[in-house]
Amino acid sequence: MRELELRRHAERAKEADALSPEGRTHAESVGRTLPTDFGLVFVSPAKRAAETVAWFLRGSGQPVPSHGVVAGLASEAEDRWRAAGKAAGSSRIDDVMSVDPRLVADESARLAAVIRNELFAHIPNGMKGLAVGHSPLIEAGVYGLLNVVVEPLRECEGVHLTMDEQDEIRLQELRLPNEEA
Questions:
Q1: What are the residues whose beta carbons fall under 8 Å from the beta carbon of 157, sequence distance 6 or more?
Q2: Is 143:153 a contact under the CB 8 Å cutoff?
Q3: What's the rounded Cα separation, in Å, for the pair 155 and 157?
Q4: Predicted local distance difference test score (pLDDT) of residue 180
Q5: Has this prediction a pTM greater than 0.85?
């Protein structure tokens, strides 16, 4: 069995690929609630994702495990996602799909492959990984893997995926109390 926590980055600074002071505080606070036995850490190429992981680990007290940047956790279609979400009035996957079904189909399949082939494939049996990426890409990856619509994730929220010996995946949403989000 392999486990993966896939979380959205913390609050970003306006007009910068960096966390805001509130984002750093929030990520450290959430980190205090995280497991301390992640064997691997993955981040998107965005600076805010790496900063979120650093603050999560600082909060948890866990030393930095093996880690890597996974380009596939980002999207070359970011502007298209933004436009479709705006047109849909929501970043919820099924709402975006009603506006741009090809975007959701293509990106969900791509992100599901990234989760299986670039994340789970590197987590040894019996270990846990932590990945920090972006919304709605995390939700799109879950949709591609499981055909399940996850409500849009707030900053530092995520999903816990467990892959069993038959490569079947189970999903648990990781929601924060309203006062923490």
A1: 7, 8, 173, 174, 175, 176, 181
A2: no
A3: 6
A4: 60
A5: yes
Question: Is it true that the peptide bond before 136 is cis, omega within 30 degrees of 0?
Answer: yes
Quote the distance between the C-alpha of residue 28 and its chain's center. 17
* Per-domain residue ranges of the chain: 2-174
Contacts of 108 (CB under 8 A, 6+ apart): 93, 140, 141, 143, 144
- CB neighbourhood size of 153 (10 A): 26
Give 16-42 pLDDT, tens digit per residue. Answer: 999 999 999 999 999 999 999 999 999
Of 163, 131, 129, 134, the closest CA to residue 146 belongs to 163
Phi/psi region, residue 81 (left: phi>0; alpha: psi -120 to 50; beta: rest), is alpha
> 2-174 falls under which CATH superfamily?
Phosphoglycerate mutase-like (3.40.50.1240)
Q: What is the DSSP string of 87-111?
A: HHTS--HHHHHHH-HHHHHHHHHHH
